[in-house]
Amino acid sequence: MRSILAIIVCVSFFACKTSKSGGSNNSSASLFKHKWMIVALNGEDVDTTKIFKKNGIMFNKETSRISGAVSCNALIGSFVLGENNAFHFKQPLASTKMMCPDMSIENGFMKVVDKVSNYKISGKYLVLTDGDNELAKFVQL
């Protein structure tokens, strides 16, 4: 009887421990479930009132493609996911070339695209990094 109780306690403890660590939002599944709107570049908040198209970007798991809009122009391209949250865009990303009221957010994002090497998801945020520094931060839509 004691051994059964000990097994139940151990299994319960292990299940809770697994659930806690397995509950991390830093999985590629979360990356694909949402649209993402940019909120920061190079660690500094962007003025989201300057975002012309607030429908965000999406990552397609089956095709390894990104599509949407960071600010004004449509954006498409490919990405590669690796182990340990390795992530990079295949160059170059393509975008439409409309003249927009404010191009600063879009131009800023295009400048950091080639530096991205990792991603992390924390709560409702997607952060693209160069391994050490936050390059772009997005919020779930």
TrEMBL record:
Superkingdom of the organism of origin: Bacteria
The protein, known as: Heat shock protein HslJ
DUF306 domain segment(s): 29-138
Organism encoding this protein: Chitinophaga skermanii
Family annotation (PROSITE patterns): PROKAR_LIPOPROTEIN
Keyword Nuclease tagged: no
InterPro entries: DUF306_Meta_HslJ, HslJ-like_sf, Hsp_HslJ-like
Record key words, sorted: Stress response
Pfam families for the chain: META
TM annotation in the entry: none
